[in-house]
Amino acid sequence: MQVSAWLLWVGWLCTWTEAAHQCQCQCACPPEEQLAQRSERSEGRGHLRHRLTHQRASHRDRAHRRKGSRPVSESGLPRIIHHPSDVVVRVGSPATLSCRAEGNPKPTIQWLRNGQPLDTEKMDAHSQPVVLPEGSLFFFSVVLGRKSQSHEAVYACVARNSAGVATSRNASLHIAALREEFRVQPSDVEVADGEVAVMNCSPPVGYPEPNVAWRKDGILIDSSNEHYTELNGKLIIAPAQKNDSGVYSCIASNTVGVRESRAARLSISGETLSLLLKIMNNLIKHGDSYI
Ligand SMILES: *[C@@H]1O[C@H](CO)[C@@H](O)[C@H](O)[C@H]1NC(C)=O
Ligand SMILES: *[C@@H]1O[C@H](CO)[C@@H](O)[C@H](O)[C@H]1NC(C)=O
What we know:
Blueprint: H1 2-21, H2 32-43, H3 45-67, E1 79-82, E2 87-90, E3 95-97, E4 100-102, E5 108-113, E6 116-117, E7 130-131, E8 137-139, E9 153-161, E10 164-167, E11 171-178, E12 189-191, E13 197-199, E14 206-207, E15 211-216, E16 219-220, E17 228-231, E18 234-237, E19 246-253, E20 258-260, E21 264-268, H4 271-285, H5 287-290
Parallel strand pairs: 2-11, 12-21
Antiparallel strand pairs: 1-4, 3-8, 5-6, 5-9, 7-8, 9-10, 9-11, 11-14, 13-18, 15-16, 15-19, 17-18, 19-20, 19-21
The structure holds 2-acetamido-2-deoxy-beta-D-glucopyranose (NAG) (2 copies).
The site of one 2-acetamido-2-deoxy-beta-D-glucopyranose (NAG) has 3 residues, from loops.
């Protein structure tokens, strides 16, 4: 009885001292390893990291020895750790194509443009892209020039050191654009009531490919309305009714901007024409009785 009471008291003391003094009592202490790490941490993180890399390296060495060993230099091969990705930029804007590589010794980075080494010497001084210290390619101001000068191309980075070479994925640099002129402007259309009306339009050349919408008498047409179908820029109205007559314009837009076509008139040659046709039919059918 006495002993268990004493143990209980020691247990309580331990918990109390742990809380109060971050544990100096053996019964609640973390294992030795943790303690060692804690003291190391207080020595500074750099030291710890250093020790850890040492440990990792020696693990690797042991693994290699077991496997019959790869040469040490192979682990120094360049490796692309950040590949460039496709970009779409407006003329005059800056652009960056990322590239980062590791290896031992530290690899140097060169860029390819359409598969050929990028020769910045050949380009106009003001439009020359620069290779940043960590390897990315930076354009101060993107230009759309003649073939050899244009920044619009497919790029890849090449990391090279004494151990070998690594090439990144291809990344394209596209220049966002939207021309002024519509490829096809809508023109005036006249159809009979109940027929299918087609308003033509082909948006200006652009990148990304422009979206097309339509306006009737200045109001945007709801493309979810089944009365209308948009097909390659064209607006199809089926069946065209009297109240479809009006002024239509084609709206092209992408990230660069918005262009509006000329306005074209749709006329529904409704009742007068069909009335005329009916009268003529009647005349033909009953013609003999009139004569
Ligand atoms: C990258 O682009 C270049 C130039 O267009 C081409 O020659 C090469 O085959 C491409 N590489 C890959 C991996 O697609
Ligand atoms: C035209 O009239 C019909 C009913 O006759 C109606 O359902 C339709 O919404 C009208 N269309 C327009 C563009 O006003």
